[in-house]
Design goal:
Distance between the termini: 169 Å
Order of helices and strands: HEEHHHHHHHHHH
Radius of gyration: 51 Å
Number of strands: 2
Helix content: 25-40%
Strand order of the largest sheet: 1-2
Structural class: mainly alpha
Strand content: under 5%
Shape: rod-shaped
Number of helices: 11
Length: 327
Amino acid sequence: MTNIPPPDPRSSPLGFDELIGIVVAFAVIGTIFVGVLRQKDKGFSLGNVSPLTPVPASPSPTASPTLSGLSTTREPNPRLPAPEEVAPSTSAPQATPSASARVSQVVPLAVVSPAVVSSKPVATKPSPPAKTVSFPDVPQVFWARPYIETLAKRGILTGFQDGTFRPNQPVTRAEFAAQLQKAFDQKVVVPAPNYKDVPNKLWASSAIQEVTRSGFLRGYPGNVFRPNQRISKVEALVALTKGLGLTSTAASNQTLKVYQDAKKIPKYATNVVAVATKSGLVVNYPTRQKLDPNKTLTRAEAAALTYQGMVQAGKAPAITSEYVAQP
């Protein structure tokens, strides 16, 4: 009879070798499981896609072989955010496209249309040359031709329906008022007139009102303007000198000696004509030293005097003419 204690019923029936085998088996299984997970992570990752390189979209998930005959589907790494999730937007949430759709939306930034970056200058259409204005009854050698054509180009003077200008035709007060209105700025210096003989329906009504308010022309006693009355040369010079505000300190008698017919100048206009002469407004044709102050102004003379007034006002360049009076 031996002194061996009886076996403990709670002890494991496995021996030491069996326990070692079980531990090794679990280690192998764990290694296989980790490998499977790594293989799954490497199947597809948006982090590996370059934003400058287009990646073709896959029509369907691709199976890859794994251990033990198992297969895993290539899907985006769920731990990586989608490109549009990196910078949160304040706009309303939208449905997240599939992995293949997101990949197909990646556009290579290096591809630029040649039309966008082209620096080739665009051809522009040249401006048409300035329109020339000529009249059949104003010859090339006509003394007032430069004045007439320049004012006609600017729309200050116009011809008649038959295309003529009629340079020697007399000028009325209404016609001269319309010419002054177009040629000069009209600044109000006197109250608005209300002439009895200038109805609103008269073609030159607005021009007469404006040139009277600006001081170029004045009416006659009895609140009349006499629009159809022919204007004299001295009246036109007075209108231009007053309207432009021209003055001179030179003695009028000395200045007026330049004219052979200075005695014919009305007394009310002697000082004004002297100022006009000193300012270069006076143009005398055919004799520069002869004023003819009381003669009816012609359309050609009106063009010459008006243009000289524009030169004095800085609105036109000077035109060389042998008929401009020289004090």
